[in-house]
Design a protein that fits this description.
Layout lengths: L8 E4 L4 H14 L4 E5 L6 H6 L2 E3 L5 H10 L4 E4 L5 H6 L1 H22 L3 E3 L2 E2 L23 H20 L3 E2 L1 E3 L1 E3 L12 H12 L1 E4 L6 E6 H13 L11 E2 L3 E4 H9 L6 E4 L4 H6 L8 H7 L7 H17 L6
Parallel strand pairs: 1-2, 1-4, 2-3, 4-5, 5-7, 6-8, 8-12, 9-11, 10-14
Antiparallel strand pairs: 11-13
Helix pairs in contact: 1-8, 3-5, 5-6, 7-9, 7-12
Bound molecules: (3R)-3-hydroxy-L-norvaline.
(3R)-3-hydroxy-L-norvaline binds next to strand 9.
Length: 327
């Protein structure tokens, strides 16, 4: 998408883990009043609420989204509203309604108005037990073991159909687990990789819901946001994929994560008590081949496990000292 003027952006799911930080990054980049944040039920943080427009929508109710798109003359949508993997297994029908019907509404609104840019993230959850788990290729078997993964496979196919059939510009990334300091994740299988930092600071101990040897691909939020904006600013003509770029920054086991935190907090202890989310984690890749993202739009992460851990603990320690560790 070649930019001639500042975009008018709508971020759905803006009160969520990615949406809350992505909205602020987009406001810094394009101007506060050019980025409309939208949520469903979760109230926005003061930072989000006081820095620019915030609206409540329900992506499963098309007219609620149309009203915002038309009143703000939106031309670009970052569609983050979604039900994640663990909650999606508890509520599979809701997961389908929000993740697929909601996406369909976004794509139809964009098609009917000729909007020039849509970003909709996918996930490594599209892969399953039949997928090669190490250095998982860009082109491979998609056999999701969760409704969340099913909705992301359907979402990728729907987005690519709108590119091919209607000539639209729809882009997306298969995100790995995302670790962040500003907003707690909302019911994913990788939530342990965020909670462990909070509990290390608050209580010096954590009970982890996946086993010590569980390895998953991960990314730190600043890199996740950089990937979204870099992809959206890339020359569409150079893209060989659209809504399903493999992406990662690092892979590590729960035990390696705990050991990295212990370098900063020596008396930190972890107990491992795998629950139902272990089976989901075991169906996902251990590492990802993201060479297509590197080749097509220059993807390079900035944070590894050591750099992320130092930054996370610094941010959370400062908040803890002010008595506001948890958002
Ligand atoms: C989840 N955080 O755990 C999301 C993500 C790859 C994991 O899609 O459901």
């Amino acid at each position: 998408m070649t930019r001639k003027r500042m975009p008018k952006i709508l971020v759905t799911g803006a009160a969520g883990q990615i949406g809350s930080e992505l909205t602020m990054a987009l406001r810094n980049r394009y101007g506060n009043q050019n980025v409309v944040a939208a949520g469903h039920k979760t109230a926005p943080s003061p930072t989000l609420r006081d820095s620019g427009p915030f609206e409540f929508i329900d992506v499963t109710q098309k007219e609620t989204v149309e009203a915002v798109v038309d009143s703000y003359q939106i031309d670009t949508i970052y569609h983050l509203a979604a039900i994640l993997s663990a909650v999606g297994e508890q509520k599979p029908q809701l997961c389908w309604r929000v993740n697929v019907n909601g996406l369909y509404n976004i794509l139809e609104i964009a098609r009917e108005r000729g909007l020039p840019g849509i970003f909709c993230p996918s996930s490594i959850a599209v892969f399953g037990r039949e997928t090669p788990r190490d250095n998982t290729p860009q082109e491979t078997i998609l056999s999701p073991a969760t409704m969340y993964g099913v909705t992301k496979v359907a979402g990728e196919a729907l987005c690519d159909y709108y590119v091919q059939r209607f000539g639209m510009d729809v882009r997306g990334i298969r995100y790995p687990g995302i670790i962040s300091s500003e907003t707690l994740p909302g019911g994913g299988t990788t939530d342990y990789a965020v909670a462990i930092y909070y509990e290390a600071i608050a209580n010096r101990r954590y009970t982890c819901f996946v086993g010590e040897s569980t390895v998953l691909p991960m990314i730190y939020m600043p890199d996740a946001i950089k990937a979204a904006t870099d992809l959206m600013e890339a020359d569409f003509a150079l893209l060989r994929h659209y809504s399903n770029y493999n992406l990662t920054a690092m892979s590590f086991s729960a035990g390696e994560l705990a050991a990295e935190i212990k370098k900063h907090i020596p008396d930190f202890t972890v107990t491992y008590k795998p629950d139902s989310r272990q089976a989901i984690a075991d169906s996902w890749p251990r590492s990802i081949d993201d060479s297509a993202a590197l080749n097509d739009w220059g993807w390079q992460p900035d944070y590894d496990l050591a750099a992320m851990t130092g930054d996370m603990l610094e941010r959370l320690t400062a908040r803890h000292a002010e008595g506001r560790l948890y958002p």
